């Protein structure tokens, strides 16, 4: 049995970022072979990641990356189990690394992103290392990437909301202002054609029932409903929205005045659409008191 020295433990810890006791146990198992011990820890890290995979990860952050020439950009949602971990520097570093991997490698989806190699390791291997080190389930949920002849801009609001914008014309200040506007108003689409048909149908159905309950004449229903739908579209379509920094102009008018065009945008909000488990802590404490 090889002697396990403090220097060996420190070296393995530097390589893996894991705890001293875990490093020492791996070195004992590998009979002092640093490379084999690292492999042992990677295997165990993978096992730990698998055990945590079923736990709901609805917290997290939005990370973004924009190339120096502003021609390529990416925005990414990475989830974890607690808001406390979302503030951890290691977790934030992993999210930023993954966002840059999206921009650089242009993966087709999250599964493809997991196989992108960064500094000799796949993103999935780095994720498993993070799970082992941080002790929570960590998941790559979704991303968007733009590559344009114009410019790409991003705006992050407290890491919980992120906007990626593809805009042609204008300047950096305009791009930032439009991205901030999107963050504030959360439009459904760029123009009316992008609003999902089911949303419009819901508005039409609600407007019809309201008009009937208000006793409006049957002959007026169609006109009333259409007016309500148009008002809804004005509120949720980016180009027709009033600019939050100057409500006297619409986004469409603002863009025209600056000879600019928005090609596309993406808006991510952390945990949006994820069903969170509701924990009854009072019941848990009561049950524990009976043990």
Automatic annotation (TrEMBL):
PROSITE patterns for the chain: EF_TS_1 (PS01126), EF_TS_2 (PS01127)
Please state where this protein is localized: Cytoplasm
For this UniProt entry, the molecular function terms from Gene Ontology, in alphabetical order, are:
translation elongation factor activity
Question: Which SUPFAM superfamilies does this one have?
Answer: Elongation factor Ts (EF-Ts), dimerisation domain, UBA-like
Fetch the Pfam families from UniProt. EF_TS (PF00889)
The UniProt keyword set, sorted, is: Cytoplasm, Elongation factor, Protein biosynthesis
**Protein biosynthesis in keyword set:** yes
Which sequence ranges are marked TM in the entry?
none
Region (Involved in Mg(2+) ion dislocation from EF-Tu): which ranges?
82-85
Q: How is this protein annotated for GO cellular component?
A: cytoplasm
- Reply yes or no: does the keyword Protein transport apply: no
Residue ranges of every copy of the Translation elongation factor EFTs/EF1B dimerisation domain listed in the record: 73-272
| Signal peptide boundaries | none
What the protein does? Associates with the EF-Tu.GDP complex and induces the exchange of GDP to GTP. It remains bound to the aminoacyl-tRNA.EF-Tu.GTP complex up to the GTP hydrolysis stage on the ribosome.
Q: Which PANTHER family match?
A: ELONGATION FACTOR TS, ELONGATION FACTOR TS, MITOCHONDRIAL
Q: Which family does it belong to?
A: Belongs to the EF-Ts family.
Q: What is this protein called?
A: Elongation factor Ts
Species in which this protein is naturally found? Iodobacter ciconiae
């Amino acid at each position: 049995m090889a002697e396990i020295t403090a220097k060996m433990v420190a070296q393995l810890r530097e390589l893996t970022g894991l705890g001293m006791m875990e490093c020492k146990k791996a070195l004992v198992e590998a009979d002092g072979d640093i490379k084999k011990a690292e492999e042992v820890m990677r295997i165990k890290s993978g096992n730990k990641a698998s055990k945590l995979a079923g736990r709901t990860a609805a917290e997290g952050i939005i990370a973004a990356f924009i190339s120096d020439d502003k021609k390529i950009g990416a925005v990414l949602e990475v989830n974890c189990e607690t808001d406390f971990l979302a503030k951890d520097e290691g977790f934030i570093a992993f999210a930023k690394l993954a966002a840059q991997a999206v921009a650089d490698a242009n993966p087709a989806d999250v599964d493809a992103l997991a196989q992108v190699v960064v500094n000799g390791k796949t993103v999935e291997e780095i994720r498993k290392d993070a799970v082992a080190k941080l002790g929570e389930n960590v998941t790559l949920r979704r991303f968007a990437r733009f590559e344009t002849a114009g410019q790409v801009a991003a705006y992050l609001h407290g890491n919980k909301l992120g906007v990626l914008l593809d805009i042609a014309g204008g300047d950096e200040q305009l791009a930032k202002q439009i991205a901030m506007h999107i963050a504030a108003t959360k439009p459904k689409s760029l123009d009316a054609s992008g609003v999902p048909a089911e949303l419009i149908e819901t508005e039409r159905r609600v407007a019809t029932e309201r008009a009937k309950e208000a006793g409006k004449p049957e002959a007026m229903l169609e006109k009333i409903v259409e007016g309500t739908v148009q008002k809804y579209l004005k509120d949720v379509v980016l180009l027709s929205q009033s600019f939050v920094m100057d409500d006297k102009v619409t986004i469409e008018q603002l863009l025209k005045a600056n000879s600019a065009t928005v090609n596309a945008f993406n808006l991510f909000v952390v945990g949006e659409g994820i069903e969170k488990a509701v924990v009854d802590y009072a019941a848990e404490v009561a049950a524990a008191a009976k043990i």
